[in-house]
Amino acid sequence: MVGHPTFEGVTKPPLRILSHLPVDGVRRAVDGLSGVELIHVPMEGPIPESATGEVLLTFTEGAPNLGDVVARGVRWIHTIGTGVERFPFEHLGERTLTCARGVSAIPIAEWALAMMLAFEKNLPENWLREPPKQWNIVPLGALYGRTLGILGLGGIGVAVAQRALPFGMKVRAVRRTRAPSPLEAVEVVESLEELIPEVDHLVLASPVTDATRYCINREMLARVKPGLHLVNVSRGALVDLDALRPALEDGRVARASLDTVEPEPLPAGHWLYSHPRVALSAHISWCMPGALDAIVETFGANLRRYLAGEPLAGLVDRALGY
Q: Mapping DSSP to helix (H, G, I), strand (E, B) and coil, where does residue 30 land?
């Protein structure tokens, strides 16, 4: 990508950035940059005639008026999230699309490890509210010696593996390409079919594509090692809930720790809320102190690359969908 050319004696026009996000929340992304103007545009309804710009900062789902906004001169679109499966690609045209890939890998990986430890140590069930039948002994599991499977070896998958290995876990992973593992101790296997019968914990860290949508289905769940702990920190559409329910009932899946489901938000009365083998949270695994600042800083770093004519980080391949 080529940034703005400079010519001696010629004053460049300001780089105008349209933002569906409140400007006050993203102003620090342009701190220290001269010749940059932030312009807020509404998510819906008419757009002021003066609102034109080369860059658009938006949400991963876009916005109802995205088509109108990008027609105002936008060449580069940056989304503040990671998954772009719901982005309206029909409005992208030849524009560049980037996302905040990898920005939440640390808190999400910590959440996955917390869920695995809670499963093995039977928490919170083991907290006492009254005298137990006996002290000092109870059957507990351990991460040590267990096999962890990871679907997707991008930023989140690598961060999970990095934290699991010091616990003495064996880590195996499936990735889209045949590239070697970025971590020497992580074994890359050919397919989910090969991976799933061998693992005690399975962490889903893959984007949703045509190849991965509902990959955790009846056929795959028939292959699992009985007592599997399933952890989904990616997208709900990776898991067929109609197939998951009977697998939970018969114990093939001992627990499903789900930070993301389909649909979101999950409607009241859904069976996932009350199932005893489900640990459900509201897509919060990305949260940590400074998480929003990190997302804004990711855009700011990319903005500096754009101005310098350098390759952008987090490029989305529209053919792959992520």
A: helix
Q: Which of 28, 103, 99, 6 is nearest to 308 (CA)?
A: 6
The C-alpha atoms of residue 152 and residue 238 are separated, in whole angstroms, by: 12
Whether the link from the prior residue into 263 is cis, omega within 30° of 0, is yes
Residues 6+ apart with CB under 8 A from 184: none
CATH superfamily, domain 15-102+290-308, is: NAD(P)-binding Rossmann-like Domain (3.40.50.720)
- Per the CB < 8 A criterion, the answer to whether 120 and 140 are in contact is yes
Per-residue pLDDT reduced to its tens digit, 201-258: 999 999 999 999 999 999 999 999 999 999 999 999 999 999 999 999 999 999 999 9
**Beta strands at 147-151 and 170-174: parallel, antiparallel or unpaired:** parallel
The answer to whether the beta carbons of residues 154 and 205 sit under 8 Å apart is yes
Do 70 and 89 contact (CB within 8 A), yes or no? no
Q: What is the residue whose two structure tokens read 């400079």?
A: 6
pLDDT in tens, 113-167: 999 999 999 999 999 999 999 999 999 999 999 999 999 999 999 999 999 999 9
Q: Nearest to residue 227, comparing CAs of 141, 117, 113?
A: 141
CA 102/CA 313 separation, integer angstroms: 10
Q: How far apart are the first and last CA of the chain?
A: 19
Residues of each domain in the chain carrying CATH 3.40.50.720: 15-102+290-308, 105-280
Report d(CA 84, CA 89) in Å as an integer. 9
Q: CATH number of the domain at 105-280, out of 3.20.20.100, 3.40.50.720, 2.40.50.140, 3.30.230.10? A: 3.40.50.720
**Cα separations (Å) of 136 from 56, 132, 139, 271, 298?**
59, 10, 10, 36, 48
Four-CA torsion 86, 92, 94, 97, nearest 10 degrees: -50
**The tokens of 209 are what?**
């594509």
Reduced to 3 states (helix: H, G, I; strand: E, B; else coil), residue 10 is coil
Catalogue the active-site residues.
Answer: 235, 264, 283
